[in-house]
Amino acid sequence: MSGDTRPSEELVKMATGVDVLIHEVQPSDSALHPGNRTASEWAAYVRAYHTTALQLGELAARAHPGLLIVYHDGRRAPADQILADIRRSYAGPVVLAADLQRF
Fold first, then answer.
1. Alpha carbons 58 and 35: distance in angstroms, whole number
2. Which of 15, 16, 43, 102 is 20 to 30 A removed from 67 (C-alpha atoms)?
3. First to last CA, the chain
4. Could you say which DSSP state residue 66 is in?
5. SS3 readout for 8-45
6. What gap in Å lies between CA 82 and CA 12, rounded to an integer?
7. Per-residue b/e over 58-87, b at no fewer than 16 CB within 10 Å?
C-alpha cells in the first residue's frame, strides 16, 4: 500500500509483482483543483506530494501488480476520466475503491 506520495523508483521496485497494489491518485488535469488554490499552485502541490492518474498508469505498467486498487482520488474528476488516464499506460485489472469495500 502506498500513501500520499509521488512516483519513485523505490516504489516501483517494492511493488513489482505484488498481488495487490493499493495506491492514491489525483486527477491528471490541474484545472480540477480545490477553490483555494490556483491551477498552477495545485499542479505544483500534486507534483510534490501525490501521483496523477497518468503517472499511476505508468507506474503500474512497470510494476505489474495482480490488481491495482485506486483510492483518495479527490473526487474532482469523474471516475471514468481517472480510469481512462490510468488505462493510457496500464492494461491490467483496476478497481476504483469506495469507502467500506472489501477485496
1. 28
2. 43
3. 13
4. S
5. CHHHHHHHCCCCEEEEECECCCCCCCCCCCCHHHHHHH
6. 20
7. bbbbbbebeebbbbebeeebeeebbbebbe
